[in-house]
Amino acid sequence: MTARTDVWKPNSTVATIVVKDDRFLLVEEWSQGRLVYNQPAGHVEKGESLLDAAIRETLEETGWTVKITGLLGLYINEVSDHTTYHRHTFIAEPVSYDANLPLDTGIEGAVWLSWEELVAQQEKMRSEAVLKCFEDYRAGRRFPLDFIYDFNHPQADEA
After folding, report:
1. What are phi and psi of 115, to 5 degrees?
2. What pTM was estimated for this model as a whole?
3. Residues in Cβ contact with 114 at an 8 Å cutoff, skipping those fewer than 6 apart
4. Which of 43, 57, 111, 116 is the most buried (most CB within 10 A)?
5. How does 127-148 read in b/e, with b if 16+ C-beta sit within 10 Å?
6. 38-86 pLDDT, tens per residue?
7. Annotated domain spans of the chain
8. What is the CATH code of the structural domain delimited by 12-144?
């Protein structure tokens, strides 16, 4: 039997919508040679729950500790024949900030932007998913966290 080289495997990622005083938390990061805006986001690590990944990525990319309060949705983006992202986007409240925490490589910093500032700079969004998630949040899209049941992390559905 010949080994298959065309195996498709989706990338499981998380993103977090964090809102404070009608402003959204974004990271300013380098992607493909340009400085772009993104929600705090990243890949889920082996053995990690989706909620833990969202909390970890937000902290590593912004210095903010957050409390996850809801699920915004699942956004699927096929960017090539072999690369598809399943982006689990969560809603969170800011809890505390650590200005001394070193941010992930490639992250220039975290910024709080109003909706008007976001729309004015939409060409700087890392992907179409960034603005779509903010639009869905503003439209009132919400799912309770118990929408997710994780057999490996049953406490995650009680967050």
Report:
1. -60, -40
2. 0.90
3. 22, 23, 24
4. 57
5. bebbbbbbebbeeeeeeebeeb
6. 999 999 999 999 999 999 999 999 999 999 999 999 999 988 777 899 9
7. 12-144
8. 3.90.79.10
